[in-house]
Design goal:
alpha+beta; Rossmann fold; OB fold (Dihydrolipoamide Acetyltransferase, E2P); 2 domains; 4-stranded antiparallel sheet; 23% helix; globular; binds adenosine-5'-triphosphate
Length: 363
């Protein structure tokens, strides 16, 4: 496995109608550590596949260098990068058996028959494919085919990294969960460098130790699922991650108080030096707002209540701003009548200036 270094890479597919060069991937410097499990997460068109293709060698970046450990691979073709790739659609030979499919990459590399047999048996066991080694790939379900596809990558002893491009797209929803947790387990066993592209936040957050969030060709944040959830560095990340995402509310902030349309909200930190001309917003997760059971807090109008089984999501209007509030199953708040009130957890209210998180000072 290799450490992958992206050194000031950027990529453009060409110029736009006005003759201006457009960058699908904006300048980026980043290191992917040996053995790390990473997810590349972002909406369609944000540049995930472009970045993945630069790592795999399908694209040579317009600018910058790519290194695997100390080797500069910027111009090295995919076949010579020792990359294993798993795509949306399983890449298997239908007429071959599972064992023949797994053996194929090793045969191509001239490994001895005994060596091939050992590797195939080992990988098949780890992927729980050992009971179907003799079956033709043709009749297998999509999830088993995808495991064979993955096995064809894992079976090679010299793999520098495994790249996954939306690998669970064609898998049945109930099997997705199983395959995802198997991948996580395999990562712990093998210690591969894994990069997993997805637009599905659940896949990214459950699979990866580090999630790299992209937006319009930029990496907006790389962090643990915990960091992305509690301290998103940009309102885009706050809004994109979470279901529903973070509430973003225009506000004025002075010291450790925020004013939202005349209502005062206490903050967990103080902000003495916010840029004067900046657009100031509060970012509050629906989980960080609660209905008050004792008459404290700010009056709101309940606009809608959606029951999602284990919890409810209330949509409320607070001084003209719409907010989502997560109501846990066990919450005692009575929302059937009267005038509901909400309270904020001050330590979980983030302040943003022009979309960027402001750190603030401990009080
Ligand atoms: P998706 O999830 O839809 O695949 P993505 O996040 O992987 O999206 P990319 O496929 O990397 O995004 O595309 C980034 C931008 O580059 C998009 O605006 C896309 O239209 C453009 N683009 C991608 N491939 C090409 C190409 N071969 N030629 C020109 N433009 C391209």
């Amino acid at each position: 496995m290799a450490r992958i270094v992206l050194d000031r890479i950027a990529h453009s597919y060409g110029v736009n109608a006005a003759g201006v060069r457009e960058f699908a991937l904006k300048p980026l410097t980043m290191t992917w550590n040996k053995g790390g499990a990473y997810a590349l997460l972002g909406p369609s068109g944000c540049g995930k596949t472009t970045l993945l293709n630069i790592i795999s060698g399908l694209i040579t970046p317009t600018e910058g260098r790519v290194r695997f450990d100390d080797r500069d691979v910027t111009e090295v073709p995919t076949e010579q990068r020792n990359i294993a790739q798993v795509f949306q659609f399983p890449v298997v030979y239908d007429t071959m058996t599972v064992a023949q499919n797994l053996a194929f990459p090793l045969r191509n590399r001239g490994m001895s028959a005994a060596g091939i047999e050992r590797r195939v048996q080992d990988i098949a066991k780890r992927l729980e494919l050992d009971t179907c080694l003799g079956r033709r790939a043709q009749g297998l379900t999509a999830d088993v085919k995808q495991k064979v596809s993955l096995g064809r990558g894992l079976v090679r002893p010299d793999v520098a990294a495994i790249l996954f491009d939306e690998p669970l797209t064609v898998i049945d929803p109930q099997l997705k969960w199983m395959l995802r947790s198997q991948l996580k387990h395999l990562h712990r066993q093998f210690d591969f460098t894994m990069i997993y592209v997805t637009h599905d936040q659940t896949e990214a957050l459950t699979f990866a130790d580090q999630v790299v969030v992209m937006h319009e060709g930029d990496v907006v944040q790389a962090g643990t699922p915990e960091q992305l959830f509690h301290r998103p560095v940009h309102t885009f990340v706050g809004h994109f991650i979470g279901s529903p995402g973070m509430n973003i509310v225009p506000a004025a902030v002075a010291g450790d108080r925020a004013i939202v349309n005349g209502l005062e909200i206490g903050l967990g930190r103080a902000y003495p030096t916010l840029p004067a001309a900046a657009r100031i917003e509060l970012g509050v997760r629906p989980e960080a707002v609660a209905f008050s059971a004792d008459g404290r807090g700010h009056p709101v109008t309940l606009e809608r209540l959606d029951d999602l089984g284990r919890y409810r999501i209330a949509r409320v209007s607070l001084a003209g701003c719409t907010l989502n509030v997560l109501v846990p199953e066990e919450a005692e708040a009575d929302l059937s009548g009267g005038e509901p009130r909400i309270v904020f957890d001050p330590d979980r209210v983030n302040v943003y200036a022009d979309g960027h998180l402001v750190e603030g000072e401990a009080r």
